[in-house]
Amino acid sequence: MRRIKRSLTVAMLCFTLGIAAQNNPGKKTVVVVDAETQMPLPGVTIENTTSNEYLFSSEEGSFELDPKQNNEVVIKITYLGYVEQEIIVDANDIPSRIELEVEDNLLDGIIITGYTRQSKARTTGSVAKIEAASINTVQVSSVDQALQGQVPGLYVASPSGQPGTPGRVTIRGIGSLQDQQTTPLYILNGMAISAATFSSLNPDDFEELVVLKDASATAQYGSRGANGVIVITTKRGDNEQKDLRVTYQTQYGFSNVNNSKWDMMNTDQRLQFEEMLKDPDMPGWAYSRNNPYKIVNGQQVLKTEQDYQEGDYKLAQLKQTNTNWKKKLMRNGITQSHNLTFDGGTDNTQHYTSVNYFKQEGVLYNSDLERFNINSNIQHQSGRLSTNFFVNLASINSHVSESDFDVSETNPVASLYFALPYENPYDKYGNLTPGVNRFGTNALQMYQDVTRKEKQLRGVVGSNFNYELTEDWKLTSTIGVDYAKISNTHIIKPDTYFGDLVEEGGQGMYSQGDQTNIGVVANFGTNYKYRWDAHEIEAIALMEMNRQKYDYYGFTGYGLIGGLDGNAGGTTPGTPENDFIPKISGSTSENLLLSQLALVRYSFENKYTFSTSLRRDGSSRVPSDNRYKYFYAFGASWNIKQENFLEDIDVLSMARIRASYGLTGNANGFASDFGYRRLYGPGQYNGQISLVPTTPGNPNYNWEMNRILDIGVEFGLWNNRLVGEVDFYNRITSDLFVDRSLSITSGFESIADNMGKIRNRGIELRLSGDIIKQSDWNVNVGLNFAYNKNKILSLGEEDEIITEDYSIHKVGESLGHFYMVRWAGVDSQTGAPLYLDKDGNVTTTFEPDNAVLVKGSYDPAIKGGFTTNIRYKNLEVNALFSFIHGMYRLNTGEFYRTSADPNYRIYNQSTSMLDMWQNPGDISNNPGATHPRYMTDRELQKADYLKLRNLSINYKFKDLGKYNRYIKEINIFGQGQNLITWTKWRGQDPEDDNNWYEYEYPLPRTFTAGLKVIF
According to its UniProt record, where is this protein mainly located (predicted)? Predict the structure, then answer.
């Protein structure tokens, strides 16, 4: 009955306004917009409380108002997600624009999903918005690092502290056996961009980020939406800003490494350890008075008193050197940024342009990044045609650390641990003295002799077009190009320690590789949105083309000439006689994705919404028989708070239930763009150049498919002082991309195939509440929590697939579960290491066949974060914590620094090795030095952590007196990134994107102070 009365009221109001429009020239159009973004709000309810009539804003956020002459009208404006507003309108002073403020903490507002935008109250999918203000000032060299802890289910694992290294981003778990196929799709202003392009953007240009997680939200992207979608909207000009607004922001600070877990031996401890080893090749025992022998011509002879005195002198000399390798090999890296923006606009044209410079020195001397960004966004309305043109250009120059992720002396992080404290890197003339097993000195020498440089030129250029055929029907199109030119250079100088080690001639090398990636996106379609009474229907149909092209060529030349070793002209032409034969490589590839899409949504008031999508994708990467696939989704939402039975429950201010189910896919797991075909490459046969098979091909290769069920509840309590969102999901990935082993008689080791299923099932929670909510004083806290259970349901005909030496994919277990021999301690009588066999029996024999499933995997089951925002007048303090639980990693560093056997004792050791077993009856977890050391689950450690990821303090000066004519606002702020980590992990930082720790570049702490001035 209430619906009928409201419909009749709306109809009468529309009829009355129509008659008035014909007879009263005073009718005026009013636009309702978001106060912060200035975006028009469609479907806003406008209630004339004077006459008890209702009206709704159009797609452009407009409605027509016509008060009777000399009368005042009281109108109440309500929109889910915004503060209700009641205003008095005078016939002689009708406003042209009404701004609505977003209601604090309410899980609502306008959501942009790439193909459409609408109120979250009318969405049926699981979507989460990241306000750009939370990342605009964060000082990170790769913007994805700023997303950790922001949204439940969104996990960012940073693999390296190397400036510019992107993180591994996953949404709702890992759904593929291939790690590189877990990255979400990134959409920038409606067009798809690569993950590398996203990481190179300037976060200060972002207006908002929206994370699409379930099928109802992601199925519109078909085969590209299997791992979730992140939609980025860049800042735009303000049509109310008639005059040009100029904003300048700068930050300056430094980065260093948290060494709270550092426990390596100093000189005294190292010499004591060597004396315990009784190794005559080490000075701690060779010169010790407890050692009665010396080695002469390979034979033991008794020492004389002179030998003892000489030994005392040499030990005293060694003890004068206690090199702090952390200070030698690492530094405080300087970070700075400068950002200048210009924006403004009129009713028809709005513009925004920014120029950004960012420079960050790495904590290792041979690493840094320098980035220059230009971003521009222009919107224009001309009659029925509206356009948006955007361009983002980035020039990135970086120096890259040698051999990151490598257990070798060419990795300076490894040398940091390997180097002995009594090693003096310089001779008496101050020159470096590199050599065999001089790990610290060699690392210092490498800083001088080895250079790795990377230059990137990235550009995104795109346009969005909308043409209104009628008030309800418009044509839409997006065209764009994502371009990247990447050049990598590796130089080893001649006539140096490392130049002499180059196998081809021993005179250094110059290597360069250049690759070009071009992605082209074009779509064209139509959007129909019609409202009548309390009903709304939206339909979208479009065609889309995505094309990717890749080219690469590279060469390595040898025999560098001193003075010319900085460019390719310094290489010596190769001949069979001089051993300087260069190496040449190159490749090219491309793929094409053609799609057709249909989206339909029906909403009744803000109460019921039903949606469906259907997409047909055709990929050139798939064999012709399986080339085209259909992807779909169904969703529904119900705003139950608007039902009569909940209207009188005042404690409940908002309640919404939604559910969705759908199918998405992935076509990017093939070995290459043409991996389904038998491929050939250059080779030799019978001494002659020929083509040889390189991959067997598989004409039956198919898509990887994702079926996702999601059920969610959103609620607000006590007038939305506390709001929350809970989601349950079940995601099953089938037809997994697997490299299936083949018989060696086939000539190939494996074949790319589809088999098996993975399930990711979990629950997500988001809470946000105002503890204090006053005009001058506000305290807000928030929590997001996600639990995901990853399980392999099938591996085709296989029960398990061993992926590496110490991990396995096994049916019934999570991906990449660790598979190792178990450690059982140390025999107190003999000092021998003890192990468990497959049956759990203690043995002294290490046998790889005794490996079993142990502890866990590297993908944490629990992820989340919590925030605190405190505001008092113009002072604001924000803190972001992130946490994970259930992550295990193999700590190879722990293995090397707790090994006394002859293979590893040349490296410096942990101070815990001073407790090594020496005599019968000793109780120790470190075996005797005479026993060999093997990797077991002893090195498998929990990598759980709680991090204070960001802390910022901001003070705004707005009342500047007479200077407000020139300066509208001044912000002074300071912040810290990656400040404190609480963890049991025995290393510099537990955070990483893989299951092994191999002396990765440590994640730094960054402290900056900044200034923002708005003119």
Answer: membrane
